[in-house]
Amino acid sequence: VFYNCVNLGMDVTGLFSDMPTLNYGVFTYAPVHGSLSLPSLQEIVRNVSRMQAFSYTKLRRIVSLGAIPSIPSGYNTNIPGVFAYIESLDYVRLPNTLTSIGDYAFYGCVVATDITLSNQCKTIGEAAFYNCKALPELNIPDSVTSIGAYAFRSCGAITELVFSDNVDTIGACAFYDCNGLKTVKLGKKIVELGDRLFYGCVN
After folding, report:
1. Closest C-alpha to 107, from 92, 75, 129
2. CB under 8 Å to 148, separation ≥6 — which residues?
3. Residue 34: C-alpha distances to residues 13, 51, 80, 123 (Å)
4. 52: pLDDT confidence band, cut at 50, 70 and 90?
5. Cβ neighbours for 169, distance < 8 A, ≥ 6 positions apart
6. Measured between alpha carbons, how far is 160 from 138 in angstroms, rounded to an integer?
7. pLDDT tens by residue, 95-119
8. Which of 41, 46, 84, 81 is nearest to 63 (CA)?
9. What is the pLDDT of residues 124-182, one digit of tens each?
10. 114-116 and 146-147: which strand pairing?
11. What is the pLDDT of residue 22?
12. Alpha-carbon span 166 to 141, nearest angstrom
């Protein structure tokens, strides 16, 4: 709808509160800003041909995403996830209906300092929070069972990781270059740890 409207400058705070579906590429590259609240949201549509929904915008806060069950995956750094490359985003609250966070979902949200995951979340996708380098702490819910490759790569401000006994798989390079990391506590049911998992964690 507003794809590549580079001069739009819309403040979305308080808008679209009754929107049940969020389509691909809705605001990609448009400099929309403010706080996003979508309490009626039921679905985020995934499409192979476009960047996703709010990537590259100027949003500062994601307050409410309704009752969505998942954030769909992007495909790579060129076709990233729904909220990728929002370099102004610093606050995220994900709903407790959310059970999965797709690949590249918040890739490159470099100033994000306050992200709360759903306490029903089971899977965190590949590169989901790659280079969220300002994130100072990460509370992984007990519900999480699988963390994808590169999921938190280059999140250099994280100092401590505690995994519940429900986590059984952590993909390759998931915490690669998390160079502020000092303490890691693994659960008792880990069955797969990927290659170079903590590479570059010099502390």
Report:
1. 129
2. 103, 123, 124, 125, 126, 127, 128, 171, 174
3. 5, 21, 21, 28
4. low
5. 145, 146, 147, 190, 191, 192
6. 8
7. 899 999 999 999 999 999 999 999 9
8. 41
9. 999 999 999 999 988 899 999 999 999 999 999 999 999 999 999 999 999 999 999 99
10. unpaired
11. 60
12. 10
- Minimal CA–CA distance to 125: which of 83, 181, 177? 83
Distance CA 168, CA 19 (A): 36
Residue keyed to tokens 């759903």 = 118
